[in-house]
């Protein structure tokens, strides 16, 4: 039987995860990434509950991830004087295990680079489906035909826009913007985090793996962003304008922001798309169900990769059926997890003083001893609300 040849767009988390599963069964994988090299920056990502753990264990990643975990502890809401108003446990913000997104990207790349044809600095420019496959044109490489195409290229998926139409109708804006970056640890944090909020703006600072570094998220109300607006210089300007006159240690953080080299700037949005596939093209991870922040994007990408690979391998030569079963399994789960994106802006930056007071009061109550089990169920219910399919025969490694 001819080995299927699949093009995967996106070398973040979803793409290499899918490549790992399929390449073990002998499928030919070409993985194209717009960036000139592997993206190793980004904020921390976390995994929580038995569903996430099961996928990581089946990929042989559980121990490797624990070796690289951040070990972040509690995070505190503070007022302008630095006084703690409420604390949230590590489970809420960091799950069962947390690591830097870049570390996970490197782990996945190391485990797939020998079997997968990685092409950095390139991207599809056109997709033409034929009875034999999908003819793909590229920015750099010569046109090539593939049996299937997978768009695992993020919230603003290029593959999605090529196959499904322009992105404007696919993204729902939730009224906030976010800037994330690495800063010098000017607050002297050690395995802890702090969140300071004023109406419509909030900053979260947490310790990083290196003691002299910290991770920062600036969240503030604002309109959607155009693609050309997301530069690092514009990010600094937007944060400086949004947090002008803010209290607490904000001035020190804004000063440190001037030297940050890994700024991420975006609007808080989530993908709303009526279907995950079109012909021989299927979307995976953020391209299908992503949210900018708070939607469990990384673990959902890895769970989705497992399910998509399982359905493709369990339905050989029947991609339409495999795509339909993949969507039927994943959409309800992804939709529940995605709900976090619509609330995350208001969590970090409540719009009013009344909303700020209510947030602090609620979390003081939820983190008391009588309600700790209730709180645990609240922060894990979306992640655990899925029965992971078994694909035992499908995932048996192919013989060389």
From TrEMBL:
Q: Which domain of life is it from?
A: Bacteria
> Which residues span the membrane?
none
Annotated FAD-binding domain ranges read: 5-335
Q: How is this protein named in the record?
A: FAD-dependent oxidoreductase
From the Swiss-Prot or TrEMBL record, what is one GO molecular function term?
FAD binding
InterPro entries in the cross-refs = FAD-bd, FAD/NAD-bd_sf, FAD_aromatic-hydroxylase
